[in-house]
Amino acid sequence: MLKRKYFAQNAHVERETDDAEVNAERTADKGRTPRKRRFSREFILTLVLSLVFTVIVAIALSPLMNIDAVTITGNRAISDQHVTRLAGRPVGTNLFLYKKSDAVRALESHPYVKEVTIHRHLPHSLSISIKERRAVGVLVNRGIFLQFSTDGLLLNSTPTLENTSIPIITGISLASVPQPGGKIKNDAFEQALAVINAMPKELLGNIQEINVAKTDNILAYTSNGIEVRIGNTRKIDGRMSALNDIMNQIIFSNSIQGQVEYIDMRYSKSPILKLKGKDAADIDLDMDGASLNISAEREAQRVQGTTEAVVEEDPNGDNDTNTAN
Question: Is Ribosomal protein a UniProt keyword of this protein (predicted)?
Fold first, then answer.
């Protein structure tokens, strides 16, 4: 009797255990996605993405994306046709297959081109923006006119003078002339370039010639024939700024009577202006502008006939007071 009861209890426990395991498996199966169904979803998603990618690539490489318009800006010295040729004649080329880096490299090899930016524009156009170097002077060397930029690069060389709006540099003989795009190497030329780069743009437009035959006595000549004595390039920025004020406020304003023979800018503290047939006069430079002033000391020396000008410092800055004869 006891054995029968024992076996009955064990059988009941085993049935409960089996029932619990079955229920657990059923519960797990309810939260589990069938493997076949999950595989189908992943396959369909992959297929759709592949089709979309294929369509995009097909459109991108199709004739629909061939370049049919090129916009060029910033070029003045170089023609649109020349820019297009250097850029590889992009019209007809696929927008995405067009090699921008090669085009930029080819364009920047041109002496006049300083910087290039190329942009693609959907669906089929291209823009090329150019920043050019500009000619700031012409160096006369053995009958050849060499145009150069602010960084001293040779832009072109011609047997005749083509650009008369920029100053001519004289007094230099180059041992060798670089190819266009190469740097001009000459000490006297470096001095002339320093003078040009120190001049405000409006002043540079009024300078016709700069002579650097003597680098410690550089001379410039304005378009109306006034000689400007520059001296060396010490403190050149301030002296050229002062010269610009003198030209605007005294020369171009017609505030003086008579013909100006020269302007002496070698003395930064006291520039000198000389009229033909008259005594030289100091030029006072202050916040209110430039004006002429003949000092009492100068007037006394004029009466004595001993000097032409009294200045506050010599061209080399060694003395506080100097008499220029």
Answer: no
CA dist 161 and 146 (Å) reads: 9
* CATH number of the domain bearing residue 157: 3.40.50.10960
Q: Are residues 91 and 125 in the same domain?
A: yes
SS3 content of the chain, % helix, strand, coil (to 5): 35, 25, 40
Report yes or no: 263 and 226 within 8 Å, Cβ to Cβ.
Answer: yes
Q: What is the pTM of this model?
A: 0.70
pLDDT tens for each residue of 134-158: 999 999 998 899 999 999 999 999 9
The better pLDDT of the pair 277, 281 is held by: 277
Q: How does DSSP assign 190-218, residue by residue?
A: HHHHHHHHHS-HHHHTTEEEEE-SSTTSE
Question: Domain total for the chain?
Answer: 2
Q: Kindly indicate the confidence band of residue 304, based on its pLDDT and cuts at 50, 70 and 90.
A: very low
Phi, psi of 52, deg, nearest 5: -60, -45
Q: What is the DSSP string of 63-124?
A: GGGB--EEEEES-SSS-HHHHHHHTT--TTSBTTT--HHHHHHHHHTSTTEEEEEEEEETTT
Residue 321 lies in a domain: no
Domain that holds residue 69: 63-132
Section 50-78 average pLDDT? 82
* 189 contacts 212 by C-beta, under 8 angstroms: yes
Instruction: Give residue-wise pLDDT tens across range 157-189.
Output: 999 987 778 999 999 999 899 999 999 999 999
* N-term to C-term CA, the chain: 150
